[in-house]
Each structure stands twice: as structure tokens, then as C-alpha cells.
Specification:
Layout lengths: L2 E5 L3 H12 L3 E5 L20 E2 L3 H6 L1 E3 L5 H6 L2 H10 L4 E4 L3 E4 L4 H15 L2 E3 L4 E8 L3 H5 L6 E8 L4 E3 L2 E4 L14 H8 L8 E3 L3 E3 L11 E11 L2 E12 L3 E3 L1 H19 L6 E6 L6 H15 L17 H8 L12 H12 L1 E8 L7 E3 L17 E2 L1 E3 L7 E2 L4 H15 L8
Parallel strand pairs: 1-2, 1-11, 2-7, 9-20, 11-21
Antiparallel strand pairs: 3-6, 4-22, 5-6, 8-9, 9-10, 12-19, 13-16, 13-18, 14-15, 14-17, 15-16, 17-18
Helix pairs in contact: 1-5, 1-12, 9-11
């Protein structure tokens, strides 16, 4: 029987602990917070979008970086197996728009309860309010091999707690999360553990995060949610992203599922531009009426204008646009709000049409880690065995979840990465240190 120490009590950590314990090992899980799954409580706006019910092959299409690395993980523990796991634990699930899977109760707490109960059933020993300071190692082969940096020259001996107590262990699974939502305890500890073991940590940036925009009028639109709209993102006039969905205006810019997905593209483009020393300036256009082509929208405007008769222009758009958006549209159109509808020229009407189909926003940057769903970047997967999640540099050291250089789009895909890598790490630890 191996003694397995899991550092981090989030999604990946709990799943790794369960898998290792069900494999017959003595498992201890260490969480610095007062309870497990603190970040899980706030995922999916508190509902916990725990996976996506797409075909397994589609999982890879929704991973932003290093998708091929996840082949063994996704096929070792697929999305259908995740759903089956929670159903078996009594946490019933349902599938919603976009094949997003949630607990029937709409409460993330039920997902956490299922995991905690399963850990207890498996005999996992929990250590809450226990912060890990470092992972400890010894030279596994000879000092010459270690000095030359030969892979596998070191092996894990355990962990050192913040109170300087050393806990011996045969294997250590690091599942500490990234830097997103630091208030939940994700403060980058795992990156430090990895670097101390000789691992490379790639550049870290917020991902699946709201976008900041230059235009002051967004403050007037704060709280307005637009559904079924199309957003297109341009860099130097070249379209780099286009998608359909829901957008939310905030006091600083835009958010919502559509924007969170776009932010992954924005972050990537910004990183590339910065490496080249280029200024980053991005333009977004929102099609407020994607179901209508320009000719159909023109006919709609003509009908609405005919019905409006002698109304002022500012009072004629109520059937077409949300009330909160109308003053901004009137301002940007350049058509005087008090102008009678029957006096609006063809050129002005066509200008309004273009504004509705190409509502402009200037993207100035990403919000910070405190608002990011995930972290882009992490422990280089080139130094991790994709079949086991074990370090190629240090024997007995495993990584799982967001701490790795893996991230995906919204829709339950990031949690699927956590479940799959956590399971693979825990399940790869056989009975006994020599197995």
C-alpha cells in the first residue's frame, strides 16, 4: 500500500484522492481552506456546470492548448463517466442548452457533497485548514545523475506543512489550481512546487475573463444582457473570432458566455503581439440582429418607421431594440433624437442599419485573475507523462487540473479536464511504492 498525499481539495484534488483510495492506497488530502471545493461553489454562477455531454472527440475541439496531451485522460475518464459517477453518488444531473451538464438541484453544493461523501466512503483522510509549504524530495539515483539533470534523478519523500511539520509520503499529487479567483485559495502554490522540482511553468494569464472596452457609453448599458447576438473580433482589420450567444454589459466593458470564450482568443493575440513588441488594439463588432440580413433589416426599419409616423426618432425604436440600448444607438447614429421619423433620410436609415449590424467596441484589455474562470498557462505538459500525469523529472510527483498548462472554452470543459486528469493521476498509483 502506497501512502499518497494530495495537495489541494478542489475538483481535481478530490477526484485524484478518490481514484487513489479506490485503488487500495492510504490517501491523505490537504486543503488550506476550511472546506473542500471552495471554487466549485461559485462555478456556473453557483450551479456548477460539471461537464459537457458532447461526443468524447468534441472535448478535444474545445480545449484551447495542448489538447493532444489529454488523449489518455479523456479516454480514461470521459464525460459520460463523469455523469455516471455523479448519478451513482446520488447527485442527479440534467443537460441544458449547449449540452452543458448541471446538477438537477442547480446547487454546486450537491456536487461537492457527493465528492466529500465518496472520499469518506473510500477512507480518504482529510486535513482541512492545513497549508502545504513545499514538496520534499531525495536523490533517487546517484548524485552525478542528479547534477547532470538526468530526468527521474529525484523522487518524492513527502510534504512540508506551513507549521514546518514534515509528512512522509510515497507519492504526491499536486492539484492546487491556478491563479483564478484567488479568494478561493488559488494563489499559485502549485507553480512554486513545480519550479522547485525543476519544472518549467509557462506564461500565466487570466482566461475566460470579461473584457475591458474604451467606449464610455458602456457605463450607461451596465446590466443589459443581450441574447442571440453575434460578436466578431478584429485585430488589425483581420477577423480573429466570431461566435453567437449571450453578452452582458458591465461598468468596465463586456462579459457573459460569448465574451468569456472570446477572451481566450484576445489573451492569445495580446501575448503574441507583446512578444513582437507591437501595440495591441482590437475592435469588436456586435450584430444585434443576426437573424436578419441587411435587406430584411432594411425592410423591418421601413415598416417600423412607417408605423411610427410623426414620432420622434428616439421614440421609434422600442419594437426593435432594448430600451436601455436606444439612447446609445441614437447617439452613435448621428440622427437627432427629436427628428421626426418621416424626416429621416435614406442615408441616415442605412447608417442606422449598419450600426445595428456592426455595433462597435474597442477592446483595451482583459480583467484580472480575480474575475477569471481559469488560468491560461501552467506546468509545462512536455515534462509530464500524459499516460499517468506523473512528472518526468521527479518520481512520485503527479500534477492534475488547472495547475497544468491546459485550458478550455466555457461549457463544462475545464471541469472535465480536472476530473479526467485527477482520475488518471490517482488511478495511476498502483498498490505499493514499487508497483
Amino acid at each position: 500500500m502506497s501512502k499518497v498525499l494530495v495537495v489541494g481539495g478542489g475538483a481535481a484534488g478530490m477526484f485524484a484522492a478518490i481514484a487513489a483510495a479506490e485503488n487500495g492506497n492510504e490517501v491523505h488530502i490537504f486543503e488550506k481552506n476550511e472546506k473542500f471545493g471552495k471554487k466549485l461553489y461559485i462555478t456556473g454562477k453557483g450551479r456548477c456546470n460539471l461537464t459537457n455531454a458532447c461526443e468524447t472527440e468534441e472535448l478535444f475541439q474545445n480545449v484551447c492548448r495542448n489538447a493532444k496531451f489529454l488523449y489518455s485522460a479523456f479516454y480514461s475518464f470521459s464525460n459520460s463517466q463523469v455523469i455516471a459517477f455523479f448519478e451513482q453518488t446520488g447527485c442527479r444531473t440534467k443537460t441544458e442548452r449547449g449540452r452543458r451538464v448541471f446538477p438537477v438541484s442547480d446547487h454546486a453544493s450537491d456536487v461537492i457533497r457527493a465528492l466529500v461523501d465518496r472520499m469518506k466512503t473510500c477512507g480518504v483522510i482529510a486535513h482541512l485548514n492545513t497549508e502545504v509549504q513545499s514538496v520534499t524530495y531525495k536523490i533517487a539515483d546517484d548524485s552525478t545523475a542528479a547534477a547532470k539533470g538526468i530526468r527521474g534523478a529525484f523522487s518524492v519523500t513527502g510534504i512540508l506543512l506551513q507549521n514546518q511539520k514534515h509528512i512522509k509520503g510515497d507519492q504526491v499529487i499536486v492539484a492546487t489550481g491556478g491563479l483564478s479567483y484567488p479568494s478561493t485559495g488559488s494563489t499559485g502554490d502549485g507553480y512554486r512546487f513545480a519550479e522547485e522540482a525543476g519544472h518549467q511553468v509557462t506564461s500565466l494569464t487570466p482566461s475566460l475573463v470579461p473584457l475591458e472596452v474604451e467606449e464610455a457609453f458602456v457605463k450607461e448599458l451596465q446590466g443589459l444582457s443581450l441574447r442571440n447576438i453575434m460578436a466578431s473580433l478584429f485585430q488589425n482589420k483581420k477577423k480573429i473570432y466570431e461566435n453567437f450567444g449571450e453578452l452582458l454589459f458591465t461598468h468596465f466593458g463586456v462579459s457573459g458566455p460569448l465574451i468569456l470564450t472570446a477572451s481566450s482568443v484576445v489573451g492569445e493575440a495580446m501575448q503574441k503581439a507583446e512578444k513582437k513588441g507591437e501595440a495591441v488594439r482590437m475592435h469588436m463588432e456586435i450584430d444585434l440582429k443576426p437573424a436578419l440580413d441587411e435587406e430584411m433589416l432594411n425592410q423591418r426599419l421601413l415598416r417600423d418607421f412607417e408605423t411610427a409616423g410623426k414620432k420622434q426618432f428616439k421614440n421609434s425604436l422600442g419594437r426593435l431594440l432594448p430600451a436601455k440600448l436606444i439612447p446609445v444607438i441614437v447617439q452613435l447614429s448621428g440622427i437627432p433624437g427629436e427628428k421626426k421619423v418621416n424626416e429621416v433620410t435614406k442615408e441616415e436609415r442605412l447608417g442606422l442599419l449598419r450600426l445595428i449590424k456592426h455595433f462597435p467596441l474597442t477592446i483595451t484589455g482583459l480583467r484580472g485573475f480575480s474575475e477569471a474562470v481559469v488560468t491560461k498557462g501552467g506546468v509545462s505538459v512536455k515534462e509530464i507523462n500524459p499516460s499517468t500525469m506523473e512528472s518526468k523529472l521527479c518520481r512520485g510527483l503527479y500534477f492534475a487540473g488547472e495547475v497544468l498548462d491546459l485550458d478550455a472554452l466555457t461549457g463544462g470543459f475545464n471541469l472535465q479536464i480536472a476530473w479526467s486528469t485527477g482520475y488518471l493521476a490517482g488511478n495511476s498509483i498502483a498498490l505499493g511504492p514499487e508497483s
